[in-house]
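Good morning C.,

I know you're traveling, so I'll keep this short. The sequence:
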Amino acid sequence: PVVWTAIARLAGDGEVDLETPVSEYLEDDLVNWEDPVTLANLATHTGGFESTNRGMWYADPADVQSLQSHLAPMPAQVRAPSTLGSYSNHGAALAGQVLASVAGDRFPAVMEDELLGPTGMETSSFRQPLSDELYSAHATGHDGGLDAKFAGLGISPAGALSASAADMARFMQLHVNSGIIDGEQVLDAEVIDLIQRQWFTHHETLAGTALGFIERHDADIRAIGHNGGTPTFHSNLILVPEVGFGLFISFNSANATAPRESIPETILEEYFSGDDTVVPEPTGSPTHADELLGTYRSLKVGETTHDSLVTTLQAPTTEIRIAEDGALLTGDEDDPSRWVEIEPMLFQNEDTGRKIAFGTTDGSVTHLFISGSVTAQERIEWNESTPAHLLFLGVSLVGLASGHTYWSPSRENGETRREWVVSLREDREKMSKAFVYAGSTAFLAFIVVTMLYLSFDTFGFLSDPSVHYRTLFILPSLGAVTGIISVGLAVDRWRSDDWSSVNRIHYALVAGALVAMTAFLRHWNLLLPR
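The tokens, ready to paste straight into the viewer:
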């Protein structure tokens, strides 16, 4: 919201147009998408970009380079703009780059000139690293055994603001007082209205998005806000402009996600709720009941990036079931949330009054929209589910481990290494063993190294994999090649009488595991460096 307030100020002055393609304001080498994307799309997270951690986290803020260098290339545009929402940190950061390009200066300096200075937010900054004065005053973030001031964020407009509570109070004044801070008109009221009106929603009855703010209807009043988190900090900002209320809450702890959400929800419920919402009783099976059933997964996933598997594992999913009385059920099977249909494809929670809706594509139910959530969820089939892929991976690893163990090649007594290599050309049995062993070993080594890298240098793996790790992609490439060859050798071994039926079956299964692992890594963009 802070960045978007600065952008809205430029829009109010006519320096940018929220409905003009952002490519008009950016250098050509940063524009890698086909369908035009506007600032309004970026503000509402409807630019169609995939999700990725690339260019985001750095253990040392001093390692953060220019904003454009961390943005280029932008994540792939995987859906048409203005159709479906999917929260995009890179989209938010791209808006910051537009701001910097129009103003002709680096992003942190532009924010100081356009907003932080005029609003008197003197102890706030996007600079990385912070000045000595601000750094010494900054809270320490805690994450188990890791204590750190603040992780570096390459795409800084998406969340690199360090601010005091007093400065955030001034920012809230700006928004709940129609641009006035301490009696001074800092921002035109029309600009505040521009920011706070609804810009996008998946369904006319659901809370949607304002300009950089997310709507919420927890109580009987419209609130807007935005939460955020880093590895060691969690914050939340809530505004109820029509009554002049604002709340900012921040925790310097890694495990504060739950209170970050529950405390504002409790306050809104306590002070702004009216009579209990009356939700009608279910009247039988809902419209298109059979089509609603299934699993829906957040669109906030990667599709072409090296961390696609990680983002998919982190993506929330919703399982839709139907009770005997016709209510939809979600969540825990022992204590599910119940949703009653109030209009075709529109449901309301019996306890909270919150709403969800379903979207269709070509007449088929394909999406789930949750009020107050920027990101839509998409129906997935059983073979796209995380458990199915993890099972596929597990079975493949068992096959590779058995291949590595059972088909380990050995030299005959007195045979030199060179003689053994030469003999592979003529001895199909030795050749067969060598290929499945080499492929199994290569894949297993790559998986182990990747897991170790992810465990010990999470920031490095997700944000900017090292050159040393990239060179290791020779291993899955080797595994893929040997897998293809091993399939042919499996056919040859099956026709031969040299091996027992058990050996032939096992060899074929290991060759299949090599092909399966090739397909798995290719699907998750881990077969070749990205």
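Safe travels,
E.
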